[in-house]
Amino acid sequence: MTAIPAYHEWRATAADPAFTEWLRSAAEPDWSAVIDHPFATAIIRGEADMRRYLVQDFQFVDSFTALLGAAVATAESFESRARIGRFLGQIAADTERGYFHRALTALGAGTGPAKPEPVTEEFLSLMDETRRSQRYPLILTVLCVAEWTYLGWASRAEFPLPENFIHREWIELHSGPEFAGWVAFLRDELDRIGPSLAEEEQAEVLGLFRRATELERRFFDMAAG
Ligand SMILES: Cc1ncc(CO)c(N)n1
Q1: pLDDT of 137-184, one tens digit each?
Q2: ipTM of the shown complex
Q3: Is 184 inside a domain boundary?
Q4: Inside any domain, residue 41
Q5: CA angle 171, 97, 65 (to 5 degrees)
Q6: How many domains does the chain have?
Q7: What residues are labeled active site?
Q8: Which of 67, 219, 221 to mutate to test the pocket of ligand 1 (most atoms within 8 A of CB)?
Q9: Does 116 have pLDDT greater than 70?
Q10: Per DSSP, which regions of 106-171 are E strands?
Q11: How far is the CA of 145 from the centre of ligand 1 (A)?
């Protein structure tokens, strides 16, 4: 494995010196494996069996929403806090939650408690630990991986989208200008804060970014069965 240069070394030679670009490039090959994952391709084609995936992801989204709450609590300005709070209230707790209820009902799965798969457990632990740290850079890092990878695969979809609402709305929730704007906000926050962190903290952020990306890949592997 090639060693990953520290941010300040990397940025001297990078075409795009953004902090999140350093993180993303260091998360390869997992990053591209998530974006190009066969399960994501099956969603885009309207062919994925969504039941196990959505039952597991409903648990993910609960911890993710709690993590958004921690981001609201730790953000450094009212504008950032309001931006995250809006996404929490309008998307996570409303549009997306409504989708889960309709989709899980249509799949005959229900919205009650379900047994988490091992990768789900690992992801929930990572998010819960990050939430408890109450450290904004770490919280942003996990949010950024989750949202940016999802924008990546969902943006591969072309019109017309699948007819089945379970595939179509899942793609719509993670693509389009509004979701792209949300991801741009998360990246901008991390691009603003990351460069002034101490080198050890930058390394910690990098480790967390890579770990979360690996979990995204394994989450799709789990869904593909
Ligand atoms: C596993 C996973 N990663 C990212 C997202 C997007 O929030 C999601 N719903 N599920």
Answers
A1: 999 999 999 999 999 999 999 999 999 999 999 999 999 999 999 999
A2: 0.99
A3: yes
A4: no
A5: 100
A6: 1
A7: 216
A8: 219
A9: yes
A10: none
A11: 9
The chain-wide mean pLDDT, for the chain, equals: 97
Range(s) of the domain holding residue 143? 49-224
Secondary structure element (H or E) that encloses residue 29, with its range: none
From the list 164, 209, 170, the residue with the least C-alpha distance to 186 is 209
What does the pLDDT look like over 56-89, one tens digit per residue?
999 999 999 999 999 999 999 999 999 999 999 9
**Ligand 1 binding residues, C-beta < 6 A:** 57, 60-61, 64, 146-147, 150, 216, 219
CA of 9 to the centre of ligand 1 (A): 32
CA gap 105, 102 in Å, rounded: 5
170 domain residue, yes or no? yes
> 148: CA distance to ligand 1 center in Å?
10
Atom 5, ligand 1: which residue's CA is nearest?
A: 146
Tell whether the model's pLDDT for residue 221 goes beyond 70.
yes
Give yes or no for a contact between 102 and 110, defined as CB atoms under 8 angstroms apart.
Answer: no
CATH label of the domain that carries residue 77 = 1.20.910.10
Residue 21 belongs to some domain of the structure: no
Q: Which of 56, 60, 120 is the pocket-test mutation for ligand 1 (most atoms within 8 Å of CB)?
A: 60
The number of beta carbons lying within 10 Å of the beta carbon of residue 31 is 23
The pLDDT of residue 3: 83
Residue 81: closest CA among 166, 1, 165, 139:
139
Q: Tell me, what's the pLDDT at 1?
A: 53
Closest Cα to atom 3 of ligand 1:
146
